[in-house]
Amino acid sequence: MSTQTSACKMVTTRTLSDMKQRGEKISMLTAYDYSMARILDVAGIDVILVGDSAANVMAGYQTTLPMTLDHMIYHAASVVRGVERALVVVDLPFGTYQGNSKEALCSAVRIMKETSANAVKLEGGVEVIESVKRILSAGIPVMGHLGLTPQSINKFGTYAVRAKDENEAKTLEENALLLEDAGCFSVVVEKIPAKLGKKIAERLTIPVIGIGGGGGVDGQVLVVHDMLGINNEFSPRFLRRYSNLYDIMSDAVRGYVADVKSGDFPNENEEY
Ligand code: KIV
User: Fold this and answer.
1) pTM for this structure?
2) Over the chain, what is the mean pLDDT?
């Protein structure tokens, strides 16, 4: 039997489970292309999410709803080619898994076959549980996503913090347990009170990864364009910016334009 081999140890769903057991936090970022995936992987990220946030940061859409399975497959295959160590998880886009578990399985199978990614992620709890179970029955690892679920923006009408009231918090907790019982290897919780994030992470044995879910969860995920400051129009409270690439890249482009206009570029060392 031939198996994948690599000089470095690859992150698996089992690795993440062991990390939770040891109390070691899990780092996760999004990526949508080969070059960014290589940077994240070499820098030691544990999980790369090919998020449908590609709709916003790569394609300029207002919501994630326009993403198609073909779009996600293109991005995911590019990312996988750049990764040696990290676990690659791919979002199932809107309309490819809700309401029809057979279609959900076909969507997940296409992602796994055509990208060689390691797992899929989908949004929702009880309303998508049949799809979750069917995908899992094919041996495809599933990551859940609760709290603010951007594919349901038209139902919520707002990107505000979720589960602030007791009823919604209780439902969210029940859904997290349901996803764990179904066999999900991890759950993302987005924009929920820190106290609730901590409570869910304590109740679940699978890793809970937060984006705006506070410090009491088992790991953190951010959209890479936001944390690198490539996108400087989005400043939610949960976002920490680790660079200001918008300004750095703008300065570089201004310098290039000026050098081309002045004739300074190329100089004699830069020509044949
Ligand atoms: O699409 C995405 O980037 C996500 C993260 C916000 C978790 O789902």
Assistant:
1) 0.96
2) 96
